[in-house]
Amino acid sequence: MTRFLLPATLAAVLVAGGGWFLGQPVQTPTGLSLPGAAMAQEAAAPTEAVEIADMTLGAEDAPVEVIEYASYTCPHCARFHEEVFDQLKADYIDSGKVRFTYREVYFDKYGMWASLVARCGGQEKFFGITDMIYAGQNTWARAGADGAIADGLRKIGLLAGLDKDQLEACLTDGEKLRSLVGWYQENATADDVSSTPTFIIDGEKYSNMPYDEFRKVLDDKLGE
């Protein structure tokens, strides 16, 4: 767990090639904002950073560590979670071979809002909500106006069993959002992340890949 505050610098995001790339060295994204009444809270300087936890699956003593850097608005990340993640979980995470950590990357305010919803249920619900967010990405992320996108994310949270008041509290938590963005920036800078999805496997960086290639990398790390 790490504590960070949001730096003042904001950066634009570019779409390039087959992935989503930052236009310059990792910085915080344009458009830091929250839905509805949280705009007033966002304008006030936070007095204390919020503690941010890594979201993890698998045995703590697993021989291989995998860290995924991903954005909820990245279609390539959605494809990875639809086509690769379930196999990875069944073959390596559930079997105790891999300790898996998911870290959010923020390209836009919608990805930030999705992160707040995913984290609203804590570690217990995080990965289930993440799956729902990616499965519905083509719907909520293309809903049009900010209010419609926020409502789409709210519906996912409610379907996941979050209480309405709990969900609104999460979506209007400006200090949590600031700490999340600072946490993302620190981690992504340390791991030299410039596109999503990016994977850090036992300290080595890898780009997006199909399951067969992912399995080969893991088997090599495991000595199998």
From TrEMBL:
Belongs to the thioredoxin family. DsbA subfamily. Residues 33-223 form the Thioredoxin domain. PROSITE patterns: THIOREDOXIN_2. It holds the Pfam family Thioredoxin_4. This is DsbA family protein. May be required for disulfide bond formation in some proteins. It comes from Litorisediminicola beolgyonensis.
